[in-house]
Amino acid sequence: MEGLAGKVSCILFFLLFTQTVSSLKKPLKQNEPCKRLALYYHDIMFNGTNVANATAATVANETRLGDFKFGKLVVFDDPMTKDAQLSTPVARAQGFYFYDMKTDYNAWFAYTLIFNSSDYKGTLNIMGADMMMEETRDLSVVGGTGDFFMARGIVTFRTDAVAGAAYFRVQMDIKLYECY
User: Fold this and answer.
1) What distance in Å separates the CA atoms of residue 1 and residue 3, rounded to the nearest whole number?
2) Cβ-based burial of 85 (10 A; exposed 0-12, middle 13-18, buried ≥19)
3) CA distance 138 to 65
4) Of the candidates 120, 118, 113, 107, which has an alpha carbon nearest to the alpha carbon of residue 155?
5) CB count, 10 Å around CB of 96?
6) Secondary-structure class of domain 29-178 per CATH
7) ∠ at Cα 114 (110, 119), nearest 5°?
8) How far lies 151's CA from each of 23, 32, 77, 145, 154, in Å?
9) pTM, whole model, 2 decimals?
10) Cross-strand partners of 161
11) Domain residue spans in the chain?
């Protein structure tokens, strides 16, 4: 009889535990972000002479397979601003992207937005494919810290300006759907 009582106790504990955990989770409202930010990402490529201003550098050159920079790897520490001007940064984007398609311009990004301003403190981790020829592209917010603890959501990229290989600016619409 003691064995049966022990099994019943274990089952009751498990049911109580799962009910408690499921009640702590906030419901997702897929059409309404719990937090939304609009920022501009400024990428200034190192060209061999602009050491003081460069925020990104090629660390592996393309492979010469096709015309789309296939295999090129870039590491960056780019400023994020509230407007399209290269004004005072509200965050930094630190990470890398590499060109991963031989037949079109496409890059894969993995980076962290690091906030340390009066508005926000903490990080957002973002990753995904940037299909550059599309007008808008969505990447995933896969986590965060501080004011963005355990955040999940979508970042919509829209290319805002391009100056050859030297500079590009992307407007980022950050929509968080899980906020704690």
Assistant:
1) 5
2) exposed
3) 27
4) 113
5) 16
6) mainly beta
7) 140
8) 18, 14, 22, 8, 10
9) 0.79
10) 169
11) 29-178
